[in-house]
Design a protein that fits this description.
Layout: H1 10-20, H2 33-46, H3 52-55, E1 59-60, E2 77-78, E3 89-91, E4 96-98, H4 99-108, E5 117-118, E6 134-135, H5 137-142, H6 149-155, E7 170-174, E8 181-185, H7 186-214
Helix pairs in contact: 1-2
The structure holds zinc ion (2 copies).
């Protein structure tokens, strides 16, 4: 792992970044060195992954300053596809992965698929900067008790209809209070939408038929 050394100057990091990410290199001239270091540390780690060649050009390293923690620097904005909640996503060909989650796990190691990541520093959903993210530990802390109804729910590995809450099958969303994230089973959601569509179609057909009969 000796090749994991962070380049020692902003120019060296810039040149590394230029090789890795030809698209979004417009960092301001007065970017503090600490910020270059964060990028350098990120680059040398993520370049271990064969996916980095494809992913790095999709990141704009010059996003806005983190809203709640400006000391943590600029957001790194995912410029490619996002899901309908605004989180970055990409496809591996067989699976769709959350960009911020994937990047976070490259830096910090694996994360259970049931543990959501919170943009605690910036509340900026397309941001993929690993140090703007943290696992939502509040859940783990408050959800220890098995009498707590939230704990019972969080411990479930399958939905009410028996589909497993895997990474792909789980949608995390926040209610307006943003207290705790909720899970939704994607299989059930799709089936529900399909059933609703079919019911509406059936109802329309029936209405048409009854109109014809009365006329
Ligand atoms: Zn951010
Ligand atoms: Zn389900």
């Amino acid at each position: 792992m000796t090749d994991l050394a962070i380049p020692s100057s902003a120019e060296a990091i810039a040149s590394l970044l230029r090789q890795a990410s030809p698209v979004h290199l417009d960092l301001a001239d007065d970017t503090p060195y600490g910020e270059w270091q964060a990028i350098g540390r990120f680059l040398v780690t993520i370049q271990q992954s064969p996916r980095s060649q494809f992913l790095l050009p999709k990141i704009n390293f010059n996003g806005p300053l983190a809203r709640h923690r400006p000391d943590l620097g600029h957001c790194w904005i995912w410029t490619a596809a996002t899901n309908r909640f605004g989180y970055g996503k990409f496809s591996t060909g067989t699976r769709v992965l959350g960009a911020h989650r994937w990047i976070y796990t490259q830096i910090h190691g694996d994360l259970p698929s049931t543990t959501p990541l919170d943009h605690f520093a910036c509340s900026n959903r397309p941001c993929v900067r690993p140090d703007h993210l943290k696992p939502v530990s509040m859940r783990e802390n408050t959800l220890r008790s098995d009498t707590n109804p939230f704990a019972v729910n969080a411990a479930r590995t399958h939905c009410a209809n028996g589909h497993e809450f895997t990474e792909e099958n789980t949608y995390w969303w926040y209610s307006a209070d943003r207290v705790a994230p909720h899970r939704r089973c994607q299989t059930c959601a799709k089936r529900h939408n399909k059933n609703t569509d079919e019911r509406r179609k059936r109802e329309r057909a029936e209405r048409r038929r009854s109109l014809q009969e009365t006329s």
